[in-house]
């Protein structure tokens, strides 16, 4: 599995997961429950969306097109 997105929060991660799955790409959200952890964990970059390496290029393009269509940087 390869990380295709480091999400800001679990909402963004699950939106992207749904988007990818609507295009036939299986994905997983990892680290979703680490956001509430305390201690020495970094404040961001905990939640990521991963896809199979063979789907990485296609998934990246889908996410980029979605961001452009929705004016998201």
Characterise this structure.
This protein has a single domain, classed as Alpha-Beta Plaits, CATH 3.30.70. Helices cover 37% and strands 21% of the residues. It contains two helices and three strands, in the order E-H-E-E-H. It has a three-stranded antiparallel beta sheet with strand order 1-3-2, with helices on one face. It is globular, with a radius of gyration of 12 Å.
Kindly list the characteristics that best describe this protein.
37% helix; globular; alpha+beta; Alpha-Beta Plaits; 73 residues; 2 helices; 3-stranded antiparallel β-sheet
pLDDT under 50 segments (min length 5)? none
N- and C-termini, Cα separation: 24 Å
Strand order of the largest sheet: 1-3-2
Helix-and-strand structural type: alpha+beta
Strand content: 15-25%
Q: How many beta-strand segments?
A: 3
CATH architecture: 2-Layer Sandwich
Mean pLDDT: 88
Q: Provide the CATH top-level class.
A: Alpha Beta
Instruction: Tell me the Rg in angstroms.
Output: 12 Å
The CATH superfamily is Hypothetical protein rpa1041
How does the major sheet shape up? Answer: 3 strands, antiparallel
The DSSP helix count reads: 2
Assign a percent range to the helix content: 25-40%
Run of helices and strands = EHEEH
Shape: globular
At the fold tier of CATH, the topology name is Alpha-Beta Plaits
Total separate domains: 1
